[in-house]
């Protein structure tokens, strides 16, 4: 008796549902599901990137809460996709393989991420489809799975990206057109964010409920809004919030040639980090140079035998060092060591 053969994988993503929901609630979920089913992704989601604020999760499937907390607390600073987009502004399909061809800080970020963070997800590969949106933001549709993405899959997604981008852009246009009529159910931006859209003459075209509740109630926010309007594209701090004003192009139907001003109640995104610098800061005055080197290799996912070979010592010596390290740091497991690293990254002083 033979098992029924698995149905053949679709040769092309089924975009019927995202097309049907374009401009309506559920579009992002539908597009993520369509691409995730085609790619057979084990983990996926939608992250909003901002040039200035900490990223925001719209959707996260099979991403543990602890990983989300760690990412938002500071691990995003090692995210090579975020660093690439933030430094180049380029949208499109990004893969770990394509980022490996980069140079400078982007390559350094990739090496740290691949060695220390990405393996702990249990996944072998990751890709990101980055679709730009107004206000200096972009939506990253990310996918991870246990086996590497094939060249043919990546080639198809690159070919398909202009269509996906156009669909994503059209969804945003339709959603904002609904806002003008007061009928919109979602904005395409994080619920906590506030924003105001003005036409080319400075007349209000739309102000969301958060804007009406916050913008006129705090002197510091009002002053930050005024400053942001004088310096488009430059974030202005208002306490822990960020105020950002961006011009709108002439094709923006709701307010051609106008501007959009965001009040983002999230911390400013910190600069990306170099892994070696973080390790030096974390273990300074706590461990010897050799112990810090061992911790660095452990945090990069190297097993005891590999650590021993790298340092030219025996596996038994590595185990003895590890015991002393754990005693000094008051921990008992490698997981606690990794959480210590994430806690250091996310602390205000770092």
Description:
By secondary structure, this protein is an alpha+beta fold. 45% of the residues lie in helices and 17% in strands. It has helices spanning 16-20, 27-39, 65-73, 80-88, 96-99, 104-117, 151-180, 209-214, 219-230, 275-283, 289-299, 304-311, 315-329, 334-346; strands at 43-50, 56-61, 92-95, 125-133, 137-145, 194-198, 204-207, 236-238, 241-247, 259-264. Strands 2-1-5-4-3 form a five-stranded antiparallel beta sheet. Strands 7-6-10-9-8 form a five-stranded antiparallel beta sheet. The radius of gyration is 23 Å and the shape is globular.
The main sheet comes to:
5 strands, antiparallel
Radius of gyration: 23 Å
What overall geometry do the principal axes of the alpha carbons give?
globular
By DSSP, the count of extended strands is 10
Q: What is the subunit organization of this protein?
A: single chain
Strand content: 15-25%
Low-pLDDT runs: none
Q: How many angstroms separate the termini?
A: 61 Å
**Count of helix runs:** 14
Strand order of the largest sheet: 2-1-5-4-3
Q: Tell me, rounded to a whole number, the average pLDDT.
A: 84
**Which percent bin holds the helix content?**
40-55%
SSE sequence, one letter per element: HHEEHHEHHEEHEEHHEEEHHHHH
The SS-based structural class is alpha+beta
């Amino acid at each position: 008796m033979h098992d029924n053969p698995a149905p053949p994988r679709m040769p092309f993503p089924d975009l019927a549902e995202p097309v049907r929901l374009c401009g309506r609630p559920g579009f992002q979920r539908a597009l993520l599901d369509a691409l995730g089913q085609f790619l057979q992704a084990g983990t996926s989601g939608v992250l909003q990137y901002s040039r200035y604020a900490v990223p925001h999760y719209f959707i996260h499937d099979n991403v543990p809460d602890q990983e989300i907390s760690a990412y938002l607390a500071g691990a995003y600073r090692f995210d090579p996709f975020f660093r690439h987009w933030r430094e180049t502004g380029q949208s499109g399909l990004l893969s770990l393989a394509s980022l490996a061809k980069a140079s400078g800080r982007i390559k350094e970020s990739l090496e740290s991420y691949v060695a220390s963070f990405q393996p702990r997800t249990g996944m072998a590969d990751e890709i990101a489809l980055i679709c730009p949106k107004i206000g200096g933001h972009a939506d990253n549709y990310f996918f991870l799975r246990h086996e590497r993405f094939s060249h043919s899959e990546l080639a198809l997604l690159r070919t398909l990206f202009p269509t996906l981008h156009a669909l994503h852009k059209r969804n945003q246009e339709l959603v904002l057109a609904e806002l003008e009529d007061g009928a919109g159910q979602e904005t395409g931006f994080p619920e906590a964010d506030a924003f105001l859209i003005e036409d080319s003459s400075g007349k209000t075209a739309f102000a969301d409920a958060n804007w009406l509740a916050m913008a006129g109630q705090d002197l510091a926010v009002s002053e930050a809004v005024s400053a942001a309007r004088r310096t488009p594209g430059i974030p202005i701090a208002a306490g822990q919030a960020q105020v950002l004003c961006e011009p709108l192009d002439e094709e923006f139907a709701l307010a051609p040639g106008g501007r959009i001003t965001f009040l983002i109640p999230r911390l400013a995104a910190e600069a990306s980090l170099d892994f070696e610098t973080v390790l030096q800061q974390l273990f300074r005055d706590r461990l010897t140079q050799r112990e810090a080197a061992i911790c660095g290799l452990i945090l990069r996912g190297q097993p005891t035998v590999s650590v021993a070979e790298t340092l030219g010592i025996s596996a038994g010596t590595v185990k003895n060092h590890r015991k002393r390290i754990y005693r000094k740091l008051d921990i008992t497991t490698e997981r606690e060591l990794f959480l210590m690293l994430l806690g250091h990254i996310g602390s205000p002083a770092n």
